C-alpha cells in the first residue's frame, strides 16, 4: 500500500459518520473509535476519539457536526471534522427515514509530512425505537473527497437509553477501505 492509497483510505475512514439524536435530533455524543484499514500488503490499525452533536432546527430539519482524532500504527495521526444538515420524515410512529449532506475535511500526518483532503458526503437510512429503551439505525453513506476519490459504505448502530437524557451507543461504518467501530455515551437535550 503506497502512502497516497493509505492517505485516501484514512481520509474516508475518518470522515465521521452522521451523528443523530434520539428521534428528536438534538444531543451530543462522545465515542471511543477503533479503526482497521488494510489490504493484502499492509494493515494499519488504531484508535482515538470522536465528539459530535446534532441540533433540531424544526420538525424535519437538523444540523450536525463531528470532530475526530485518532492515533494509528507507524506513528500516523489522523484528524477529521464534518459539518452538515439533514432531513427526517416519520414513516410511522418511532420509525424515520433520514437523509443528510455534509462537508468533510480529513488530515493524515506522518512525521513532518501531511495530507489534507476535503469533499462532501451524502447519507440515507432508517432510524427506529425498539421498545422504550432501544434505538437502532442503518443506512448507506457516499463520500467523495477531492484527492482521495469516492467510497460507499454501510452505517449500522444502536443505543440503549438509561432514561430520557442519557444513553450508551455502539456502531460501525463498513466500506471498501476501512472498518470503523464506535462505542460511546450520548446526552440529549
Overview of the structural elements:
By secondary structure, this protein is mainly β. The protein has one domain (3-188): OMPT-like (Lipocalin). It is built from one helix and ten strands, in the order αββββββββββ. The radius of gyration is 16 Å and the shape is globular. Residues 10-22 have low confidence and may be disordered.
Order of helices and strands: HEEEEEEEEEE
Mean pLDDT: 87
Strand content of the residues, in percent? over 45%
Major pleated sheet: 10 strands, antiparallel, barrel
Please give the order of strands in the largest beta sheet.
Answer: 1-2-3-4-5-6-7-8-9-10
Task: Describe how the helices and strands are arranged.
Elements: H1 3-13, E1 27-38, E2 43-56, E3 61-72, E4 76-92, E5 95-110, E6 113-130, E7 134-145, E8 149-161, E9 166-175, E10 178-188
Antiparallel strand pairs: 1-2, 1-10, 2-3, 3-4, 4-5, 5-6, 6-7, 7-8, 8-9, 9-10
Keywords:
10 strands, mainly beta, 189 residues, Lipocalin, ten-stranded antiparallel barrel
In short:
With 189 residues, this protein is mostly beta strands.
Amino acid at each position: 500500500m503506497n502512502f497516497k492509497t493509505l492517505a485516501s483510505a484514512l481520509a474516508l475512514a475518518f470522515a465521521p459518520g452522521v451523528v443523530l439524536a434520539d428521534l428528536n435530533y438534538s444531543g451530543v455524543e462522545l465515542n471511543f473509535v477503533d479503526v482497521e484499514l488494510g489490504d493484502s500488503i499492509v494493515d494499519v490499525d488504531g484508535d482515538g476519539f470522536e465528539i459530535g452533536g446534532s441540533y433540531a432546527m424544526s420538525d424535519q430539519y437538523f444540523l450536525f457536526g463531528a470532530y475526530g482524532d485518532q492515533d494509528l500504527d507507524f506513528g500516523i495521526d489522523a484528524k477529521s471534522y464534518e459539518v452538515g444538515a439533514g432531513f427526517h420524515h416519520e414513516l410511522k410512529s418511532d420509525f424515520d427515514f433520514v437523509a443528510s449532506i455534509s462537508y468533510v475535511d480529513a488530515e493524515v500526518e506522518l512525521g513532518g509530512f501531511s495530507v489534507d483532503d476535503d469533499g462532501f458526503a451524502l447519507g440515507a437510512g432508517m432510524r427506529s425505537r425498539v421498545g422504550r429503551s432501544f434505538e437502532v439505525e442503518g443506512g448507506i453513506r457516499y463520500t467523495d473527497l477531492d484527492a482521495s476519490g469516492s467510497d460507499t459504505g454501510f452505517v449500522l448502530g444502536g443505543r440503549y437509553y438509561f432514561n430520557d437524557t442519557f444513553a450508551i451507543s455502539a456502531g460501525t461504518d463498513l466500506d471498501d477501505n476501512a472498518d470503523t467501530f464506535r462505542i460511546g455515551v450520548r446526552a440529549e437535550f
